[in-house]
Structures
1.
Amino acid sequence: MTVPAPRTRTAAVLVAIFSLVLVGLATVAGSQAQAADDGFTAGGSARQVYAVGLPPGAGVSLLDASGAVVKRQRANAQGGVLFRRIPAGQGYRVREDGTGHRSGPLTVHTNSPRQWNKKIYDQSIPTDGYGYLTTRDGTKLAYTVHPPTNPAGIAGTPLPAPPSQASPPYPTLIEYSGYGYANPESPTNGIAAVANAMGFAVVDIQMRGTGCSGGAFDFFEPLQAIDGYDIVETVARQPWVKGGKVGMFGISYGGISQLFTAALRPPHLAAISPLSTIDATATTLYPGGNLNTGFAVAWAHERQEQAQPAGTGAKGTQPYAEQRVADGDQVCTDNQALHGEAASLIGKIRKNSHYKPKVADPLDPVSFVHKINVPTFMACQFEDEQTGGHCPALVRHFTGTKKKWFTFTNGAHIDSLDPETMNRLYDFLSLYVADQAPNVNAAELRAVAPVIYQAAMGIPEDDPITLPADPVQQQPTYDAALAEFEKAPSVRVLFDNGAGTSPDGRQTAGDPYPGFEHSFTTLPVPGVKARSWYLGGGSALHTKAPARRHVVRYRSDPRLLPGTDFKGVTGTGGLWGNASQWSWDWKQRQHGTAASYVSAPLKKDVTTVGAGAVQVWVRSSTRDLDLQATISEVRKGKETFVQSGWMRGSERKLATGRNNLMKQRSSLLEPVPSMRRADVRPMPAGKFVKVVIPLYFQGHAYRSGSRIRVTISAPGGEQPIWSFAQARPRSGSSLVRIDSSRRHPSRLVLPVVPGLGTDTPAPPCPGLRNEPCRDYVRFTNR
């Protein structure tokens, strides 16, 4: 419970009276907030204690039941203070040191989702509009409800309401993140309009410590997941929610949050549909041990700025919160009191450059998705320029539910909403959340789809993107539709996205239609083979290790190609507004700055699904260096990007057993770096050493007659938005030698699915979504 900080003793008296009223209201809601005799309010939470209404800058102590000081801090400029990582227990009190005034006794709870305050579920939420939902510790979270009768707009574009959902109860979905989801005008990066078009009501809700929500922000701390549990249970009990249960829906941040919430198993959660997610923080933040100072660090900076108190002149706060404070929203204003207690994400990044299980595992979905027991639909992209292409690693860990479907494709961050995926997503939500046959709203969704793609992807109006025919939506009954849907294998891979044909026969390069698809029971694909191509002389890749020794050299300088952007798009703003996200400004490497190898023309199609690796025997003139491996397909004088991977030389040790970041054993196709500080070893002087560069996942068909290319270089210049300002060597350059011989068999290893060919033509250049194509330039190794 938050109140404004008193500026004078008279103001403090008034605040005291107001606080007592608030405490009374909190008691009705079941909060543990306690008022001290000078007016500040304190409360216990999950491993936390907070206090608000203190004089700014006041010294504050947290006392245990015996009166001993546990921690000391100073109140922030808004009169708030938050004590983190407090052991669970009873009898804690908050003391204002200057006056000696104390709060009443407080209870600190564990991070268990077991509810300690069930009365909060009696809250009433209206069917439409903006408001605040109270969590079990008394924190008020901002929300906006978008009923299907009054749908949210997308990118400022209004959408029509589906007539089949004219009155409640509505099938209902929750979008939950730290972006400006609660913005009543237009949810920031939210896709509520898409769900509305499917016939669902959407509750867009703001994470604690962001926007107009109370509390203090931290990156996916346990309390955020507990809040998610309370959100699900509160919304599900509303009389206008169909069936007394809700689903979760969202892309990126709003997708990742679903994994954390669902792992706590709220009883009235029906299903989740996370889109464009991560599998582990490190695969986006520290690929191969090299800090992603492009998207990942920029994203962290943005989250930290947006978590600062609105209405105080702080840089980068969420505009809708600034506006509500300016317009006199007292709850939003009061809720800023703890925003100044936001955790330093940049500080956490600096302190956790290596794998620490106690820190990393609670933040990494790969560590806990086995706890999820509700039906799950997930979609990710192999070349996702934001979260990265490692999401498919989650498939093997989803052991808590048998109802799970995954769609993977080449493409950008937003391609989890492509037509083929949208169809299956809609079917899933209709069947497992709405409990109705998808044919109920299929016609309305199809009618509005071109508007969605025009607004979300910037597709021109004269090139309408429409949904293909769907056999599930053609079934007349729920049972028939469910049976048809559940016939599909768990894993679906859409190949050549951007080179397919629209339902009406049009083929426009880059439009989000796949060329073909294959489905599998799981990942890794049963029967997948690790096929090797060996680095040899003459810049060639061979199917066998070379009989003679070949050593090439290049100068590694991370400053040469620090990053790549979409053409005409800078920063992270290309997510929603760039129609040609498949087109990168993909620059050529200069001779002498990389080592590149090309295979002979393939005699038949080679279709890959999964991860891979590049094993190189390296000698470096510096004690450390960062390596990037890029895989591409060369055909008819053109070169198409497929995938990249990264590895820091000093981090080269691979993990043994399953007690590692990815919770799986290293294999030829999926090497797992240890990432532990104790395993760091400098590059040996004057000696060749084996460095394995893990490749991120791919689903790509290398056509007969094409050649496979692998390029090894300093990091940067390949994945858009990602950059590596701290790449090694930090200054100057390193002379790198790569040895390939029978003794040192440097090689490319790809996940080939035997017999999996294609009868579709090779895609145009350019054409594939987020797989740029350029003129092939022959590269002669030195």
2.
Amino acid sequence: MPIQSTTDDFRLAKPPLDELALAEIKTAIVAKLTLAIGKEAALATKHDWYKAAALALRDRIVHRWLMSEKDSYDAGRKRVYYLSLEFLIGRLFTDALNNMGLLPLFDAALGDLGVGLSELRKCEPDAALGNGGLGRLAACFMESMATLEIPAFGYGIRYDFGLFRQIITQGWQQEYPDEWLGFGNPWELQRPEVVYQVHFGGSVEHSVDSRGQERAIWYPGETVQAVAYDTPIVGWRGKHVNALRLWSARAPDPLRIDVFNTGDYLGATAHEARAEAICKFLYPNDESAAGRELRLRQEYFFVSASLQDLIKRHLHAEGQLRSLAKKAAVQLNDTHPSLAVTELMRILIDHHGMQWDDAWEITRATLSYTNHTLLPEALETWPVELFERCLPRHLEIIYRINELHLGLANACCPGDVDFRASVSLIDEKAGRRVRMGHLAFIGSHRINGVSAMHSDLMKETVFHDLHHLYPGRITNKTNGITFRRWLMLANPGLTELARATCGDEVLDDPSRLDRMEDYAGDSAFQQQFRNVKHRNKVALSRLIGERLGIKIDASALFDVQIKRIHEYKRQLLNVLETIALYYAIKDEPQRDWVPRVKIFSGKAAASYRYAKLIIKLINDVAETINNDPDIADRLKVVFLADYNVSLAEVIIPAADLSEQISTAGMEASGTGNMKLGLNGALTIGTLDGANIEMRDHVGAENIAIFGMEALEVVARRAQGLDATDVIGRSPHLARAIRAVDSGVFSPDDVGRFASIAHALRHLDHYMVSADFDSYYEAQRGIDARWSAGPAWTRAAILNVSRMAWFSSDRTIREYAEDIWDVPTTPAAQPAPVRQAKR
């Protein structure tokens, strides 16, 4: 396909709009504004217009939704139930418009009504019902399941407040409630008739029934009601719509009138407050006993309600439970829903009278488990005492599962006490705790990692002995992202360029991106590509100026690290290199330095003090560098607060360099690496998570790999964590650590970062010091490549053209075929991805 002149702004010709459809949509929006919002156009706010437009769109989605439901029920299709404590769905308005094919019509209709779509989109709050990659992955998977026309339900919690709103005050993270429901939510439909009882506490009695079978009767001490709220999730082209069902908690009786009438007004609503606390906030601080109990209550609450719901649906369609595994596939997204193993067993045995062996066979065949971490501290464990108090019947079931499981372990390795202790559901070494990762593993027929390296390491590390006992259960499903949001919506300029070079079919089949490879060396196309990137960088520069008052040169190299703040993700390594570069520029100001903008964004867990200290260091370093006249525009450091999906949609298309620098062997997969690569950023990273597969797809010459590999990390840790040897050999690193330690960046509190300096010298668990020199040299290689201009652009284009395999459609198709045993729509089958040219 011919390339336009490089002097032209790249635009595809737009097809003419259907005037009748346009008039119908305008009428529908005004009707919603009047009848649903209760406002006249002259008095309506932007938020009123947004809500009216969203409701008009929702009407059109609901029709498709009902048709999808009817078709799947009529066909008796197997359903997928995706259980996740997090769903980071972000804004839905333009996403749904795009997938329904109504974006141009609504844009024109709102323009005719005197309001702009881009402004109305900002009225929608981000539904921050997730912490980061885990929740965003769940959202991408829900969209891909709808796109592939897989009948599915997502199940989670309707948190009153999402992940906290992050505000940076004098460089420190401050947490505030995220009131995403403050103006209501036009996308959800409450289902007041869908209510389930969820029980806690109490005692268990055992009896023998008329057939001589022992039965357990749970007499709970507390009951909480789960109320359903449904949000439609639209697949591409609007062909299929699935539901995301979120549960809200309430007490069966909201007010104790007898207590209220005694004058104890707070006591009269205490049980309501206790119930509502379950859905009040995502990830309560679990440092306290009360916080740990609330987390466990949250997990059981949504698991119990979800399983009751799907069993009721199955019984309505099938009339019996023997076929459950043939008609329902339940995916546990991380360890949070692990209680599904015991809850499904409890329901089958206690409520439906099944024998243990039959119930266990159905449970294992129905459930599958996705592991997202190799960090032992992230594999949840709960004190046995907490289980005894909150979920006594489930603890009994866990003991019974463990008894049978340890019998197999003993048969496998007779007399091996250490092996039995390793695979046991009860960790006896840490004060008797229930291992939830083990429970999910034992109770599932398939356990998958989320990148090839991660799945292999699962077999060698956290689940080594379980893999030996149950060989063949672990499989790999490398993560993916939905290109509809992370290319089409986030980067319309690049999307238009892709359509012009790859054809309109690229919108349906991302593998067609490989046609862009033929233009990677074309100077005219390279200029088009650079023009798109520059416009995106100008937009981000404007946002940084508005938020932080920092003037950014859009022609500089935008070096981006956006992710949760955690020691293993090594923002600290990036900061140290920034400090070293700062001193190098000051030492040789006459050199032709590549101008850089270091862009950080991400939240630290509220209780993670060290991560919050790293945020403070980033901001203190930024304050020094950005105000140093000797540096001018050669180096800027930016921390953008309150990272969320909408902010990511601005940062990612503007990024030139993607920082994926986790300690090798510690990142399960990553999806930010995929989003940035798809949008034309080169990756600097370790051989960790999906970086390995990205290297294999984009070509080793188009990615910058540095640092130790996973086995080398293990070997160095075995020798000790002291890093004085590597610091002694690295003048750049030694100088940077001295600056941090001596208060150069914290003159108001010289000892503020002493703990960081001490860890870098003597407790280098995450190999920040050990990998520094390799990282610093890789960054200087990035400088050289950036200076080469066309070579950088060619590598960026090749990254885009070779990223198609990382579509979440591919990932979900693999789940469907290998784990869930459900068909996908043939129309969604992609063409083979062309192998990267070496």
3.
Amino acid sequence: MVRNPHNRPTSSPLSGYTVIDLSAGIAAAYCTKLLADGGGDIIAVEPPEGNALRGWSASGARIAEGEDGALFSFLACTQHSVVVDIDIDSDVAFLHDLLAGADAVVWSRGGVGEHRGFAPAEIRRDHPHLVVTAITPFGLDGPWCDRAATEFTVQAWSGGIVGLGRGAADRAPVFVGGQIGEWFAGAYAAAAAMTARFRQIDSGTGELVDLSMLETQILSLTYYPVGFFEMLGRPFRTERKLSVPGVATAKDGMVALGCGTAQQWFDLCAMVGHAEWIDEDSALSITEQANLHAHQINAWMAEHTVDEIRDVATAFRIPNGPVINGANAAEADHHRARGSFVTNPRDGFTQPGMPYRMTPDVLRAPEPAPRLGEHTEHHRGLAPTPVPRNERGTAKHLPFRGMRVLDMTTFWAGPSCTHFLAMLGAEVIHLESTARPDGTRLIAGVPVSEEQWWEKSPIFAGLNADKKSLTLDFRTERGRELLRELIGTCDVIVENYTPRVLENIGLDYAAVRELRPDAIMVRMPGFGLDGPWRDNPAFAYVIEDTAGLTWLTGYPDQNPIEPYSIGDPNAGIHALNALLLALEHRRRTGEGVLVEAPMVEAALNVTAEQVIEYSAYGALLNRDGNRGPTAAPQNLYRGNDIDEFGRADSWVAIAVSTDEQWAALREVLDNPSWARDPELTTAAGRHRAHDAIDQHLTAWCADRSCEDIVHLLWDAGIPVAKVLQPHRQADLPQLAHRGFFEHLTHPVNPTARHSTIAARFSGGPTRFHHTPAPLLGEHNHELLTELGLGGEDITELEADGVIGSTPAR
């Protein structure tokens, strides 16, 4: 049996866990990197010409023959490389030997696993002990399973391109740059693979994990729009508007400020010297009010330096941050103080450190990436010992059943982490108070004059189904006493307050360990538990600004645009990965773990390519509208449809990523003379001629409906998509086939469809949702009774305001 092939100490959570990598592309590579960081032994099986990532550079840097691109050197740290020629029978037998001695497989199209009996279902048939995690654009089955796609076209199908009104109304909407969907899918795949491992440990058998990138992008780039539409009868947002203040040009660089609350807007008015703008009774939204005064706000910014603006904004508690890019990220004072960047152990460039930290320190430091085939002979020389196929026991239908989680989180990042656990069986107790309910209860725009208005937030409903609600005001002594008692009953505590909140009430990790020695405590501060920015407000857009996500989004002739989406769910999925590693460490050792999972360091990891390209090649990656380095042409083109809001604003996304796809597009266009230019037969030539190609495709699309364009191009094997309004996600036949949305009935709200998990597990469940999001304090009596309180005690707590079911006025 091929166990611990790297011959390392067994202190890491996944030591001895062998993963065969049969993949290509960033998503799978990032998945295996996260597993390697946790101690997994990754054997990358490559074709004789090597993984295509070895020759990749987003900036087009020349990579010498026999050398590797810097991104590959980052993603493949600590792994082994084995070369297999799938056309040679003895190599096929060798690959079967590797699979027989492994625990898991990560698979995607374009890798070795696409050939000769190594599709996911075939691997499971021949090696049923394996957990096989397959990463594909739409899933392994369903009407779209074989359709051509790129990360860009999947963003369009997800609704993520227009989901949060990104960009100005007078231009095409813009996608989130940096292949972000690939990175998020990789993080999600790692969490799904480790989840399946829990059942594998119980039973000795594996399963197929079928991950859809479309579904991961819905969860990361849109904000529960289907539930919003079905519960409130209106879309979340229908118009594109530039955020103000948003990203602004200061005297010496770019700075970003955000106003997520009325108080922050009032404070901004005072900060820029215009208190007369404050109108507490205004019928306009904060964004609408800010846009009225955009010229004066931007003029004030231009007169001050970044540091001056940030100092005064911080004093006003207005969320703010510098706009980070590949050239300045590693020099930011907070990132330097935290040691957020490290040196690549083989090639010496700068790369992000781990996206999370643990106490005890059980993560494995990166080791040099392998050269092509470096370990082939080593593994050929090992006698394979197949993993026994007999079942050791019965796997749990819900892998986290029996686990109790105290969910001390709010808004999007923290609840998205614990929601995954709740959907797969954990008892998740969502802690709120009547004085400070979860912030997502308050942001749906439901008038406070409506009865039980706080129960009508579709965003809260989407993030907190299958959880219980306990209200507890831990500003009171009695509230703190009860909180400590509750912690003693919990396996896991997750919180995403600013660091000082729990410290002020004496509930740091040391205190938690006294209450529950084997507790796992996951802390999700925006910027970490230390460093100069540790107490700064950390809304998603600020995280995006300070990690590079904003920099690559938007048009090159304008300031970048905050995605306003990925910062939170990306933090949630990385915290989940860290939590799963901590659970495995506890399973092996009995020890509790402190997990520190800062939002910004999760974001720095999925924007790694910017810093790596600048450090390795001196190349600053820049935003380019809807174009990108992986395809040419790649852009949005307007069809002749009138959209559901009566506007000529319907778009398709087209991305030609291979020469074969270009030839197919030329045929669809009926071989016009301009398309026969020999220069266009290569990707480099098409990139150079992108402006001219765009002109022709714009004219061609303008005469056709978006549906006709998609039909013509997709049938020809060309990646294409309608730019979907996000509240129409549930209409997509692929999602209907996979059952991604499930109906939930709620005691206050209309029955609505809610998104689930972006993977299907062959071991089940077939349904993820069982109870709707809880009413405020719905489970107070149940949970407090379990702590030994009687009816009179609970009544007294209600009278004293320690608990309750109505927000305090």
4.
Amino acid sequence: MAQIKHNHFLDTVDRVFSHAKDCNILHLQAEGTYFDGRFIEIKGKKLYHFGTTGYLGLEQDPRLKKGAIDAIRNYGTQYPLSKSYIAHPLYQELEGLIEQLYEQPVIIAKNATLAHMAALPVLVGDRDMIILDHQVHWSVQDAAKRLKLRGVKIVLLRHNRLDLLEEKIKEWGSKAEHIWYMADGVYSMYGDFAPVKQLQNLAEKYPQLRLYFDDVHGMSWAGSKGRGYVFQEMGRVPKHSVIIGTLSKTFGANGSLIICGDPQWHEKIKNFGGSLTFSAQLDPASVGAAIASAKIHLSKEIEAMQKALQSKVHYFNRLIEEAHLPLVAHNNSPVYFLATGIPETGYTLTQALLKEGFYVNMGLFPAVPSKNTGLRITLSKHNQKEEIYALVQALKSLYPKVMKATGNSFVQLRAAFQQDFYGLKEISSTVSEDVNCQRVESIQDIAPEEWNTHMKGKGILDWNGLKFTEEAFKESTTAHEAWQFFYFRMVDAENELIVLAAFSLSRWKDDVLAPESLSKQIEEHRKKDPFWRSSPVLSLGSLFSDGLPFYCNTKHSAYKKAMRMLFQQLDTLARKHKVAQIVWRDFPFNNSWEAYFLKQGYIPIAMPEVALVEKMTWKNRNGFLQTLSSRSRKHFKKDILPYQDLVNVQVEEKVTAVRLGAFYELFTAVHQRNKGLNTFRYPIAVFKKMNSSPQWEFIVISTNNRAEEILLGVMFCYKSEQEIYVPSLIGINYTHNQTYATYRQLLFESLQQAKRLGFKKVDWGISANFEKRKLGAQLYPQKAYIKAENNFLMDELETQVG
């Protein structure tokens, strides 16, 4: 019955990226007829380039250029034949040089993504399991997820948490043949490292453990002969490990390499690796350049290049420390992440640096949590110390100004990254005295007339509805039933209303919007632990009703200040109560607030559609039928009308405790059956409160035989004072649902009751939209905006989908 359309993760990413493009942060176009690595030209402006991944500058080395040109001259622009049949002559020389470099057999692939796609299906058996570090590169995660089709279990693990890894090894030791842990050697966003030596110790302790490293960002600038960070830490690739390296990025050419500690793995990948067999081989120019680079790596010159880069790394580190700028990780890699927190700060600072003549990348969702954006700054051989100094001076000047202009603070920054960022001087508050925030914890502290004026037509979100919700949920003592409520009233110096909003703090199941199949799997675990994978959430409105309890006078000159103050208040509450997410929900799918939320670190999530009946002008059943399409009229005559004489329909306002208990059993049956919107079951106290409230009534359907009456279904309906009738919840006797078409009859009876009472609209809420449309409902897509404490919960659930 649920029939809920769920959010697609890629739609969320698309909106974030589209907004970043609109802010001129992503998908920029380099210009000019010449590129030297030191400068990059964008929109006619020559900028210092601090966004490269060619850390040693080898892509501009004359020897690599000559190697590429000679290869094209001798072999053409490509060698159009699968390498499985025959490799072009330069391949043998390249493979020989790379094997000489690593002193182990090596497989050459076209790029790292295809290397993962070639290696993982061969290495990982059907009885194995995979544990992914949360920050391992997307290309590893994507290749691994494809193995779910073979039944391979995949688990996401918090970043570099070896204690949790050991727990998983113990948990799955008797269930999986081998356990693969997959990580980056050097992580591409923060520039931090995998704890390789500790992982090796774990692999020795647990023979089932296999280690798989993507070290493309650790190549060339690190390790003896530029063999990379992971290889340097290991000394030699042991039998239980695999390294994926690169011939692009710092290596200066194109291509990737696979190094297996087990010779049998090497042969299997070489023989059966799908992308090796069915993808075109590297073009001659790439192989020619890679040969030239390999020769440099085998010479003493690579050490001089590494030392020259390290001197710049140390110089930049010292300048950053003296300037007290908030780096997320301090190390000797040429990758830096300067924390900015909310995206608006990151966008503004990136744009300001462009104006000052510096190009840097911005790290944003999904590579980092939406509230943990920052500037990803990289150094290379091309950067000279004078421009490194100039960049730091520009950051030192711009950073506090941008933080203040975007309403950010170091209190928020420290909380977002859970780091002290020692030495930062707090920015003076941007909150103006002409805006006052009034926060109360009961709707009874807000005037009913003011609230209802601005929340007109929002059903259970009127003053009485929120009073009912508060009283029904506040009294419970269990973790998932006791809710807290926060009402915000933002006014100017003359007490003119600017913003009005209602939020609730309650425990949500992490899979509340996950596909039903996944929720059913998780519910099996909850039979032992009812609160497994559930978290406190601060949400606009509550899980008891749909709708948007939010008003903002956007014509007021101080509305942006008021909204900024509200965001700060919510962040403070979130920290105090350690919530997993702040959720602004039930906005129209296309709304004017999206860009604003994106700048504040909220990501858009598609919500289930809401069904509203807005044409209540008919006078009788025949008039109602005329409002329907011909197909819907046929549906009514076939699937509803023949059953009406078989049942008895009553509207009851107050029932006995026994009857209310029977209603609750029917509601429980629906809740247990439908996991499309997976929430904790409402407690019986809520229904007892309904039974004593003049705003609630029950539409009850039972069999006609009064001697042996069978209760078939009940609809719990809220009577708003503002022209809208809300059939909020439903209970069904599933044993007889098909025989009496109970659900469809309840829908129609709620329309008739709303008409009798003079309501102009019916809010049927979410789910079962197909049935509701056939009775004249219009469907309205909705959207929520979510700021999560981190991406882990969302990414973990996404890993399990499919």
